[in-house]
Amino acid sequence: xxxxxxxxxxxxxxxxxxxxxxxxxxxxxxxxxxxxxxxxxxxxxxxxxxxxxxxxxxxxxxxxxxxxxxxxxxxxxxxxxxxxxxxxxxxxxxxxxxxxxxxxxxxxxxxxxxxxxxxxxxxxxxxxxxxxxxxxxxxxxxxxxxxxxxxxxxxxxxxxxxxxxxxxxxxxxxxxxxxxxxxxxxxxxxxxxxxxxxxxxxxxxxxxxxxxxxxxxxxxxxxxxxxxxxxxxxxxxxxxxxxxxxxx
Length: 248
Ligand SMILES: C[S@@+](CC[C@H](N)C(=O)[O-])C[C@H]1O[C@@H](n2cnc3c(N)ncnc32)[C@H](O)[C@@H]1O
Hints:
This protein is α/β, with parallel strands linked by helices. Helices cover 33% and strands 19% of the residues. It has one domain: 3-Layer(aba) Sandwich (Rossmann fold). The chain has nine helices and seven strands; from the N terminus they run ααβαβαβαβαβαβαβα. Helix 4 links the parallel strand 2 (58-62) and strand 3 (84-88). It is globular.
């Protein structure tokens, strides 16, 4: 097992989370309750956020042992151990098991590498056949606010429409173009992405794609309904004439 490494992507995730938490500080109430994180990686991205936002407390989870070791070292080095804790294990098994009050906000740059199976460079980054399994799982987990990365090649239309069916609105988002990195460039993955995009399940250029970090909410006090704008920013038609081809 290795540790996720993609500087641009992590920086975009951290910056976007910081901006969204700051912008919606009152409504998200994170100064009054801890938030949780699926997939800390080495924790550098969110350490910067914890440093920038006094009063923010985060409990993160990662299934990768080396990532958790590195995350704990990075957090300790920055002196943030009292506000950013990381536990080893599957987020969905552990986040609610610790007892206490349930968090209302979850943040994540989740695994979203689409591939026919888990046998890829870093199996912990497998997002299922369409790449959006973890995003869908997060949306179905019952949090009021879900701040998550959404990748243009991982069937974002299904993610946004499923969110709407579950009562979420996209409040706002920050989108960025990214070059294919180590994980998307693996030939098996690259070929799979091509097929998904040809089948209408997303968008990717020859060597690039888009990622947006979006705030989905069910809180009526937070205005905004930007689902279609999010899809357009990801280069995806919000109302395709021909629906996506059913998975084989
Ligand atoms: C795309 S990386 C993001 C890491 C970090 N947040 C960043 O942006 O730099 C996704 C992380 O999620 C972790 N992960 C995958 N499935 C998980 C699960 N079910 N529960 C907790 N962590 C998980 C992986 O090990 C990986 O470190």
